[in-house]
Amino acid sequence: MTLAAAALLAGLAWVRYGPLPAGLLRLEDQTSTEVVARDGEPLRESLSAEGQRSRRMRPDGLPEALVHATLAAEDARFFHHPGIDPLAVVRALWHDVRARRMIEGGSTLSQQAIKVLVHRDRSAAGKLREAVLALRLEQRLGKREILALYLTVAPYGNQIQGAESASRAYFGVAAAELTPAQAALLAGLPQRPSALDPRRHLEAARRRQQWVLGRMRELGWLTAEEYQAACRERLAIARSERAFLAPHFVERVMQAVPGPPPRRIRTTLDALLQRDVAGIVDMHRARLVSHGAYDVAVAVLDNRAGEWRAWEGSGDYLDQDHGGAIDGAITPRQPGSALKPFTYALAFEQGFTPASVLPDVPAHFATATAGVLYSPRNYDGVFRGPLRARVALAGSENVPAVWLLSRAGVPDLLRVLRRVGLTTLDRTPEYYGYALTMGDAEVRLDELVTAYAAIARGGTFRPSVAIRGIDRDGEGPAPLRPADVAEERVMSPRAAFWLADILSDPDARAYIFGSGGSLDFPFPVAVKTGTSQAYHDNWTIGFTRDVTVGVWVGNFDRAPLRNSSGVTGAAPIFHDVMLAAQARIGGRTPAADEPIVDRPLDLEPRVICALSGHEATPLCPLLRTEWMPSDRPNLPCPWHRHAADRVVVAWPPAYRAWARQTGLAVDARADAGVSGEHVGRVGAGGSHAAGTASGRSRQATSSERVEALRIVNPPPGAIYLYDPTLRAAFQTLPMRAVTAAATRLVWEVDGRAVGASDSDRALEWPLARGPHTVAVTDGREREETSIVVR
User: Fold this and answer.
1) In what helix (H) or strand (E) does residue 161 lie, and over which residues does it extend?
2) For residue range 223-267, what is the model confidence (pLDDT) as tens digits?
3) Residue 774 phi, psi dihedral angles, 5° rounding
4) Which residues pair with 312 in a beta bridge?
5) Lowest-confidence range among 94-98, 208-212, 366-370?
6) 143-153 vs 109-118: helix axis angle to the nearest 10?
7) CA-based nearest residue to 42, from 261, 269, 251, 198
8) How far, CA to CA in Å, does 219 sit from each of 44, 64, 96, 108, 175?
9) What is the pLDDT of residue 706?
């Protein structure tokens, strides 16, 4: 008898004090993650690992109305039983027998919580295990802890788990704000979530609610007046709680959080600005479609905080036909000329200034492959001769940028681009070559925006962030990173100032882009456009002191755009977003003369010749003011000289051929006093500035130095490649030859005549792949050379 009693006690002890299944009370898989904007507005609540939307409830924060309604509906004796309620079991059996079917279960809240957590089957053995675990749960946790556990895991239909999520989903309020009528409706749902779904079966849910209210009145948890008010209350059921703002941004944020999914992610996103951006994209939709563009990405960065404030990945997340779920802000694409400012930044570090004159003339550059020459062309196929760096960058000319890179070095440019955060440039300098400055490489929009923001900060780089902090269950709010992130200097303050000053100079870019368009603003904005090869992508990136905005327009399937460039495609969207972002983030309209980047104290304004970039003299017809280093002497302009009774231009050797072809050159010997120089006449008010001619001089009147017929372009054995940044119409080779006297030249390619030209002009031949023999004749002599086009 003693042994039997001991065995019985041991059995009861095992039932009561035995172990719970490992990990049973870890609720990470039961809790979904809420992503909110910077002001707390929900962006999205992701599904938990169990496929539900759920928020955890805590024992010390349970709303009284919800507690009373839940106990009335499910377990009125909850605080008086050990996990199993014998009276409820007997009552349920009596009701089931009388009804001759299962109509009542008698489960306590502890048992129902266990049922959800262990996914127990409907067999008798499963029911027995549930009862045992309920007794053990009561031993481990206090009553309010078990009640909070139940209210966290109970099913409320529509992939909603837990009373907090149900309250927000059905009524749009936190559980703490529920009225007794609302709490009663929710408390009735876990019994039959589908049949009582208030969105589809409101009347059934209302009948269950009335029963729960009646029980609350019987149990003394409602006064007669409260009961009558609750019965009369009209309930407004929300159709859906699912927020769908910035879906690409939310997905990126959730992937970036380390460790198990947290309860809440607090992001940097500005919900109001995000809606503005979405509206702007929608407003431009019809115009984009007319150009064959279906996808748009926009990123807005707060320069001071380094925080993303708006993020649009495709323009329409639900557009399955055009890859709407793809995030264009992180998808690498060719940026075209949007990379050019960093070539100029590198050159500025190496001694160039905005006044440095760069050659915009036909040129050939050696590549890493023996015999292969790179011969860039400008966007419009026009060569403009000498261009100051300010004008060349503002006008986005290709040839000067390549020439500059040939001096600065591709390896050094690649280092600069990597330092400012472009992670996709993982090939060798030889792989990219000189075309790197024109964007013949793929980058991400978000990283390019971050790189431009480094310029706006005066040359300091800091990583951009999307998360302000994360909240995990059992922990207080925690920031994802320290508040003060160390900044790295990636370019000098002088280079950053020059870049910002040039890119915000409307006069400097007007000769190419005109004025009065999408690149003009009522306040200073540094802006750069870019168009990739074959017109697959166009970009506009720009910044103020407060904000950097980047826009990409294109197609994820790489279908080319129609009659669209960075100016016509992305720029109108950029313009509208920049206005909205500056107002929202900057909170002000900058003054028209306010610099974007503070001017370094070692720069001073100097008057220069608009043509040569040197210190202006009385002979220079067109002047400009430029910020120049105060410790660097500037030589007087040597280009403009007196010749007899007039002022002429003494063209440096690099520009002589170009000057002859454009009608700006005058024979040197016709002008006394400038023997040995090619000169151009500057008449009254006439000038040549920024590569444009005003008041053209007469053509040469006598022969150049006597010279036999000779082909000067193409050079022997040259190998040409198609320029990836240009249309086929611009894929031409300028063929030139020099002769003893001015005459007519006839050109042949592979024995077939392709055209004729004057001896002082080039003949443009459309490139054709393959080996070719190029020949020229002046009627007396004949010259040949061989080339290859790949």
Assistant:
1) strand 160-161
2) 999 999 999 999 888 876 555 799 999 999 988 888 777 888 999
3) -105, 130
4) 298
5) 94-98
6) 50
7) 269
8) 39, 14, 24, 17, 22
9) 39
DSSP letter for 723, please.
-
Rounded to whole angstroms, the Cα distance separating 213 from 193 reads 18
- Residue 158: how many CA atoms within 13 Å on its side-chain side? 20
Nearest to 397 by CA among 347, 437, 351: 437
Position 695 pLDDT exceeds 80: no
Q: Is-contact 355 613, C-beta < 8 A?
A: yes
Structure tokens at 712: 């000067």
Please give the angle made by the CA atoms of 432, 400 and 419, to the nearest 5 degrees.
Answer: 45
Res 452: pLDDT: 98
Please give the structure tokens belonging to residue 335: 């940026």
* CA 612-618-624 angle, 5° bins: 45
Output 513 or 556, whichever has higher pLDDT: 556
What is the pTM assigned to this prediction?
0.75
More reliable by pLDDT, 782 or 454 = 454
**DSSP assignments along 368-429, one per residue:** SSTTEEE----TTS---EEEEHHHHHHTT-HHHHHHHHHHH-HHHHHHHHHHTT-TT--S-H
Q: Which amino acid is at 268?
A: T
Q: Residues of 250-276 as b/e, b for ≥16 C-beta within 10 angstroms?
A: bbbbbeebeeebbbbbbbbbbbebbeb
- Inter-residue contact 402 to 387 (CB < 8 Å): no
Is the predicted pLDDT of residue 601 greater than 60, yes or no? yes
The predicted structure's pLDDT at residue 727: 64
DSSP H helical ranges for 649-737: 656-661
Contact yes or no for 200/189 (Cβ under 8 A): no
Main-chain dihedrals φ then ψ at residue 255, nearest 5 degrees: -75, -20
b (16+ CB within 10 A) / e for 422-448: bebbeeebeebbbbbbbbbbebbbbbb
For the record, the structure tokens of 586 come out as: 């900057």
